[in-house]
Amino acid sequence: MPHFSHSVQSGFRNWLPASTVNECLVWVICALGLNIVVGYAGLLDLGFVAFWAIGGYSAGWFMSNFFYQINLRFGSVAPKSLPGIHLSIWLVLLLAGLICAFFGIIIGAPTLRLKSDYLALVTLGFGEIIPQVFTNGENIGGVNISNGTKGISPVDNIGLLHKTLGPFDLNYKYGLYVFIAALMVYVSLRLRGGRLGRSWLAIREDELAASMMGVPLMKTKLSAYAVGAFSGGLGGVAFATHINGIFPDRFNFSISIILLAMVVLGGMGNVWGVIIGAIVIAWVNASGLPAAGSLVNSTFHTNINFPSYNYLLFGGTLILMMLFKREGFLPESRLKQFLHETDDEDTNLELH
Amino acid sequence: MVLEATDISVIFGGLTAIDQVSFAIPEKSIVSLIGPNGAGKTTFFNVLTGLYKPTTGSVAFEGKDITGGQPHKIASGGMARTFQNIRLFGLMTAEENVMVAMHSHLKSGIISTIIGTPKQRKEEIEARDRAREILDFVGIGKSAGEFARNLSYGDQRRLEVARALALKPRLLLLDEPTAGMNPQESKVFVDFVHELRETQEVSILLIEHDMSVVMKVSERITVLDRGSKIAEGSPEEIKNDPKVIEAYLGSSTGNH
Prior knowledge:
The complex is a heterodimer of chains A (352) and B (256).
Chain A: H1 2-15, H2 18-40, H3 49-62, E1 63-64, E2 71-74, E3 84-87, H4 89-111, H5 116-135, E4 158-160, E5 163-165, H6 170-193, H7 195-205, H8 207-212, H9 217-243, H10 253-266, H11 271-300, H12 310-324, H13 333-351
Parallel strand pairs in A: 2-3
Antiparallel strand pairs in A: 1-3, 4-5
Helix pairs in contact in A: 2-6, 2-9, 2-10, 2-11, 3-4, 3-5, 3-9, 4-9, 6-7, 6-9, 7-9, 10-11
Chain B: E1 3-12, E2 15-25, E3 30-34, H1 41-48, E4 56-61, E5 64-65, H2 71-76, E6 79-81, H3 94-100, H4 110-115, H5 118-138, H6 153-165, E7 171-175, H7 183-200, E8 203-207, H8 211-217, E9 220-225, E10 228-233, H9 235-239, H10 242-249
Parallel strand pairs in B: 3-8, 3-9, 6-7, 7-8
Antiparallel strand pairs in B: 1-2, 1-4, 4-5, 9-10
Helix pairs in contact in B: 3-5, 3-6, 5-6
């Protein structure tokens, strides 16, 4: 019996460590935000990493000793002797969300007039620019906004329910991330069922008809962008607390693509599908591949670097999904219907 | 007058699509715009609804100048339209389609929707009830939960009208509403247009190809040909206007 429990424990340590669970949840939070932009409003966004980065740096600014010249604290558990801005985690989450929403509007206002592919390209550029700004942000007009390539580390411990969560209190952080993810699910479902969500879907379905029915296109698209960016900010803060710091090299283009893959594979527009997509992909990336690799290597005495094949795996999966299951694992029922009807039409055409 | 368009011209590059057309719609009237293919009818519609900005001329809706205004503002101001080639929100239910058009009448924002304030919940329930009423009125109440793309062709046409009515319009523009309908369906539609005007207190502008529908339904008819207005009057006058006959059938005094 002790032997059994020991092997179960080591199995979990390899295949599903607590840090991987938390990382999956961080991805879920961001993917739910992107789902509002891509899944609901139908605006293809290839630069979502920008909001993730801005959110992360917000955590760096407002809950570390980065701005050591300033001494401002509110509801934080950071030691009193530490200079810098130290705010309560809830306030940081709110601020990060608002800053991201603000940037979402700044970026969206001039670009959302563009149609699908062009919008995708501009967002792609945005997703490249923001991380570059942070990477080279040591001296912007004499102000250091990001510590450059060194990043900002560590961030404050989190004060949560009279507890102080350090870098290794994974269980309690898990609770925090679940709470944020659940909040995002609730927000998505509420908005989807209301006035704004209907107009988002209408824009996705037929932009011109929507405007002819009194839906202001710019304002409605911007709101989708802002809400999506807000949750990207939440995800950024969660990420910063998860890895206990913010490092600019973590915010690269592949994050935007992986997020998009999560939304598409899981089932665009369906929050449950997106959650499954995010968990599966994040898990494969963080634990699944390394654990499978060490299992295979130790069994067959080979020396294959499994994690380095992750993009081959993702690319292959995406292609297979597009060929056989375009609507994703758990699609919104309406999308599934649409895709399968066009399938039928295609086959009909071939028959004639 | 609900609507007054004065000296409208639309020029695309070197092509004059509409040439100095003036046009007025009296309160609670049913007016038709007819003409051969390519006469500029739909272009004229698009000018009225703000989709195109006229090269010259102005449009006044209920006394207010709306020339080149944003389409969504004109729509929520009380001018609703349907489309020649049906443009419903295919993957939304019939009810949702109608509710989208209520966007400008509803007030709840992001925060109140997320929290679900009593006011927001009440507003949603009222909107749903009204959507059901409108769907019942156009005769597709039973299909409220169906996706728009799954409705039959005739029902899709009805849903387009229902969606437009949800804007509480004072002017309803119908772009070839009987296209693709059989004579029986067209007849039902003529009655429906009369009923609309009586019960919804709305003026109706119709673009139509089916002459039997036009003659039965309209009080005044305007004829466009190659971008210019060639005739205007009651159905009787139009029927006997030599210029109209010429535009449709070719010249009767031609060289044989």
